[in-house]
Specification:
homodimer; alpha/beta; Aldehyde Dehydrogenase, Chain A, domain 1; 2 domains; 4-stranded parallel beta sheet; 20% strand
Chain lengths: 418, 418
């Protein structure tokens, strides 16, 4: 075995041992750690900023764009937000040990389904250093050990944050190895970890599609994947058009670079003539480019034509595809054919249409009369999230503490035999 | 692409289309199908038995043991049981479409977590033909299409059962392709299906360890695995020894060839002198061979020595490893080191010991004062099961209808924007 392979295996073995301790620790110890870590971030802002400066100074070497450099920067406010996020995770209910379901069998057996950690999480992410603290907080709170693999652009920031988190683990009486940061930026390390299915229970990649595809192909353990969000808003013929304008604009423009932003607007032909000119004015005011189907362009002649490719595209930008559809069924078929099963909304006051859309559209979140932007762990009441799964297996949609756990059956009897 | 590859892809594509229809069908239609199929089994017993005769006649060519031939045989009683199992699945609550959790957010959004099918299941199994009907029933009831791959020894029986099930699907207005049987016994077909992650959502192999390992290694989609059950009964110093004798004998001897049968008995040293001679007498009466550690053999000198290998072995036979342990912690360590995290029991009247054991032992089922034999979907109140998962991800322990489903969030608003 190579030195790198040895390093990766030893790291994962340490995580596995830490996970065993962490699984049976009292919730208060984890809460103490989160609060201590928040306090330490306040106390060590200067050190963290200094480490961040090294990354910022090296950013041009990595060819980062201005937007990427901005995301990398740890301002005073952002450090406060990181600390606040830790405090918030401390307040969330502990998913480990509580009874999720309970049945008493006719023979008197009490069958309880009890939350348990998944074990060891391998978490791969890209530039933003706040993710280091967020992911560590969610994993430890759910009783999991985590091996963090951050982007090379944020290496110094991540290292400083990780040292702080690990020091506070020790200070709280928790195993330091519960949160480890991969100390090499060698890309081959990812491949090594992905081969360790005997030690790592789940891999969570957060980043571009290329990263996630590579991880899914190479991983020998389960992966919680977060692919693209080609999200739709369908304006039904029975929509309240004032509401529809507000939601359609919000879903596209409130923030564009996120997976739950809408990429395609579908409009029932009976309301297209009234609705499209109104909403187009708002999009123009927001600086949003429209690309329309032929029927859209009959109503809005200045709009560029949309190609088939456009309807398959996650723009993550101020661009929107627009299509006029014949009816609800055509809208559903469009979502099935072009969508990514992430988040799709129907705007309507027609109960039967709402029921048909929510039953037939098989997406992680299906919204009625609300913006697609609400598909989010915090908005759904799950607390903070580690990502939004586009899988169907284990976790779908926002992944919070619960999705980082499994369960076991604890059965109490009084001498039952079969 | 080869002809075989074409065949497999087309089969999976048909299943995918059927799954889309099946996902939105009313529960009553699925119930009707299950009842019609049960009636048809009663009506076609002679045909089914004739098909089974062909398999039985060919059994010597496959080198089946007497026990295997017995499992292959479709007697009148067994056909009645298959029909009865279909009737039972009909009675289970439908896992699709019901709200599992519901939250109202401060902004008025109603966030419902709703059960949905996984999609397409690829189910691989070995000789017993009743599994054809059981698996089809559970998959369709949970809204999934299924591609069945049975053992070559049961090919004629499976073909006859499948034809009946598919005919009744059509008669009930359901897509015939919702249940398909792989029509070739070519082993390469399994490999082809395992590569179709774009069409198949989950693979469930049921059979020997070799089959499951091969499937887990080759599959490109999630797999629900069912590995071995090295299950333990630990008799604590605070156990009721009468109860302990009854449970220890039941857990080993009631049925030996099953995964939840106990393979190792751990006994606290303080009660070993009293307990072991008593239980040994019962095991002798049941024809069960004991293999003991040194301390066991001091108490029971006629017992053969147990090797380290014994403690790692799933006998599936009337053989039991026995070890005397110093205390609860040594019992927990033994279970962790040698067990397969399937089912482990503590027998005790000591509350603290019971709490420590159930918290520290990380197995799919942890029993207190009950036989390990109860780790079973029906005994846990899940209804029929498609297997017992030894995974931590998605499904752990008995897999019933619920474990064959995923969920989506259906969110109702009244114009909310972010």
């Amino acid at each position: 075995m190579s030195e790198l392979a040895d390093y990766c295996r030893e790291t994962a073995e340490r995580a596995r041992r830490a996970a065993r301790d962490l699984a049976v620790v009292k919730g208060q110890v984890k809460i103490d750690w989160l609060r201590r870590a928040a306090t330490a971030i306040h106390a060590k802002k200067a050190e963290l900023a200094a480490a961040n400066e090294k990354d910022l100074a090296a950013a041009p070497d990595f060819g980062l764009t201005d937007a990427q450099v901005d995301r990398l920067r740890l301002t005073d406010d952002r450090l406060e937000s990181i600390a606040a996020a830790l405090e918030q995770v401390a307040l969330l209910p502990d998913p480990v040990g509580s009874v999720r379901e309970s049945t008493i069998r006719p023979n008197g057996l009490v069958v309880n389904k009890v939350g348990v950690p998944l074990g060891v999480v391998f978490f791969i992410y890209e530039s933003r250093p706040n993710v280091t603290a967020d992911a560590a907080a969610l994993c430890v709170k759910s009783g999991n050990a985590v091996v963090l693999r951050g982007g090379k652009e944020a290496f110094h920031s991540n290292t400083a944050l990780h040292a702080l988190l690990a020091d506070e683990l020790e200070a709280s009486g928790l195993p330091r190895d519960a949160v480890q940061l991969v100390s090499t930026t060698d890309r081959a390390a990812v491949g090594e970890f992905l081969g360790l299915s005997d030690l790592i229970d789940v891999t969570i990649p957060r980043g571009g599609k290329g990263l996630i595809e590579r991880v899914a192909a190479e991983a020998t353990m389960p992966v919680i994947k977060h692919f693209d969000g080609i999200c739709h808003v369908y304006v039904d013929r029975a929509a309240d058009l004032d509401m529809a304008v507000a939601i359609a604009v919000n879903a596209k423009c409130q923030r564009t670079g996120v997976c739950n932003a809408t990429e395609t607007l579908l409009v029932h032909r009976e309301v297209a003539g009234t609705f499209l000119p109104r909403v187009a004015k708002e999009y123009a005011a927001a600086g949003c480019e429209l690309r329309g189907c032929e029927r859209t362009r009959e109503i809005l002649p200045d709009v560029k034509p949309a190609t088939d490719e456009d309807f398959h595209t996650e723009y993550l930008d101020l661009i929107l595809s627009v299509r006029v559809v014949d009816d609800l069924e055509q809208a559903i078929d469009h979502v099935e054919q072009y969508g990514s099963h992430h988040t799709d909304a129907i705007l309507t006051n027609d109960l039967a249409a709402s029921e048909r859309f929510t039953a037939a559209v098989d997406s992680a979140a299906v919204m009625v009369n609300a913006s697609t932007r609400f598909n989010d762990g915090e908005e759904f009441g799950l607390g903070a999230e580690i990502g939004i799964s586009t899988d169907r297996f284990h976790a779908r949609g926002p992944c919070g503490l619960r999705e980082l756990t499994s369960y076991k059956y604890v059965v109490h009897g009084s001498g039952q035999t079969k």
